Every structure is written in C-alpha cells, then in structure tokens.
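Help needed: design a sequence for this.
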C-alpha cells in the first residue's frame, strides 16, 4: 500500500509538470510503451505509461482522443493496431487540451489518416499556430510543434458522434483556454457506466492566477471548471495523464482479473477535491492572503 502511494505521488509529480519546465527532459513514462486494452464497452486505452490516448471504436470508424508528443504517433499507431484496428480508420481526432504533450502529434496523425480535427474554441488558435498563441508558453520555442488545421470548432456541451457513439465536450478551462473534459456512456456486462476523461485541473508552475495579462479570466475559469467537474456523474474515472487516475495500479488490478478496476467514483471525487484545494491554496498565496 505504501509503495502504491509513493508510485502515485511520483506519477502526480510528473503530471503536475505537464507541459511545464522541461521539454528537453521529458519524463520517461511519457514515452514508455504501455499495453493497449479495452477499458469498457467500445472504449480502449492506446496511450503510453503516462500520456493517455483513448480510442472509441464504432462501426463507422474510430475516434482518437489525444495525439500526445511529436514523437508519439508511431507508439499510438502500434497500440491501435495491436487491438486489431486500422490506423487509417481514424475519422475524428480530439484532444484534452492544447499543450504539446497532448496535441503535438496531431499534424502527423491527421495527415496519415485523413481524420477531422475537432477542438474546443479556446484552444483552436493555439493548435493552429503550433503553440505560438498559448497564453503562458507561447514565447517558448521549445514548446512549439507542427500547426494543425481545425475542421470543427467545438463549444461547451457540443457532442461528437460517430457510428452510434456519442462524446460530450465539457469546457473546463483554466489550464488552457479550451481544456476539454470528455464524457460518454458505455455499457459493460449489462451495466451503464458514466465515463469521464478529465482534461486537466492542474495549475502549472509559473501560472499567474492574479493579474494575468494574457489570460485575465484564468482564476474564474478554474473556479467554473471545478464546479463543472463536481457536477459530472462519474463511474469510470480517466484523464489526460495516467497519473490523474492511477493508471498503472489499476491496470495491474485489471490484469489480475478485476474488470471493474477503472470504476472508481470515489477516486474521481477525491482527485477533484484535492486539485481544487491545490488551486485555492495557490490562489490564496498569489493574492497575498
Ligand atoms: Zn497541460
């Protein structure tokens, strides 16, 4: 149990550094291969040991969530093909948010598959400029990546549908202006499960929550995000990084035969509460209170 807690703390640390600091020094679990597997219904995990990507397989083709680093498409492709799916059947590409650890691979994937890129309004200019209009990292060339054209601009509450599957885009801005939390319902062993893929509730190192000239509404957006995340019904708890939901421990349980390893409504609530507390502490600190 103790080891598990240490592992979770280490993963949380790598998550907190998400798109922060160290592009020259990418955490090893961001590029470490991880077995692809079916989470529930027609939803599959196809990411690395920490950078999460998800595949929704429908009779009309595939939806991919998150293209990850510039170097990630080959790894994601291997995972998709290991499940018996065709890479070129990807019809729609979605992202959790416009940071280069979740969207830098998009240009290559769109070119290879011909998929449509559907992105939340606040993140559109960032992905179309290859990171140059990011409110915090825009001037940092090490955070730039290949620009990718957006085919459909999403707004809060919009749905993405394909072959009978429906994903809902919830605007949960703050971490970026268009951070998106995806929800969908999946049926597993006759049970209906509410799936939540958290976009990111984290305040990165160096983020200005008070007097932010390039993102004046940042603190209000985070507050709204936590209200939205608290309101979402969640059975299957997932997110943009494996560290959010303890992917590695849950996968070990899953491999041990626990089909419900990713059903964790309590873990979801605890994670959101923990991140909200961290945000509020940082806001108090920056407000000098
Ligand atoms: Zn990020």
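Sure. Designed sequence:
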């Amino acid at each position: 149990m103790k080891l598990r807690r240490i592992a979770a703390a280490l993963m949380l640390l790598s998550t907190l550094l998400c798109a922060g600091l160290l592009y020259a020094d990418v955490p090893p679990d961001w590029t470490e291969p991880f077995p692809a597997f079916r989470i529930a219904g027609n939803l599959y995990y196809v990411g690395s040991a920490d950078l999460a990507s998800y595949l929704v397989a429908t009779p009309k083709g595939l939806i991919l969530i998150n293209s990850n680093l510039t170097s990630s498409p080959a790894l994601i492709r291997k995972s998709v093909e290991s499940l018996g799916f065709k890479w070129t059947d990807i019809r729609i590409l979605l992202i959790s948010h416009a940071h280069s650890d979740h969207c830098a691979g998009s240009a290559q994937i769109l070119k290879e598959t011909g998929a449509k890129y559907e992105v939340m309004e606040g993140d559109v200019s960032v992905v179309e400029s290859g990171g140059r209009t990011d409110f915090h990292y825009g001037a940092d060339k090490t955070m730039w990546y290949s620009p990718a054209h957006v085919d459909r601009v999403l707004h809060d509450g919009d749905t993405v549908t394909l072959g009978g599957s429906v994903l809902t885009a919830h605007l949960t801005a703050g971490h970026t202006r268009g951070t998106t939390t995806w929800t969908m319902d999946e049926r597993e062993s006759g049970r209906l499960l509410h799936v939540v893929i958290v976009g990111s509730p984290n305040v990165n190192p160096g983020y200005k929550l008070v007097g932010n000239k390039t993102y004046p509404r940042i603190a209000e957006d985070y507050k709204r995000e936590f209200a939205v995340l608290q309101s979402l019904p969640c059975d299957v708890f997932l997110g943009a990084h494996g560290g959010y939901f303890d992917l590695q421990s849950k996968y070990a349980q899953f491999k041990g035969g626990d089909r419900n390893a990713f059903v964790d409504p309590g873990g979801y609530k605890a994670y959101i509460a923990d991140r909200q507390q961290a945000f509020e502490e940082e806001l108090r600190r920056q407000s000098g209170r």
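The chain is about 35% helix and 20% strand.
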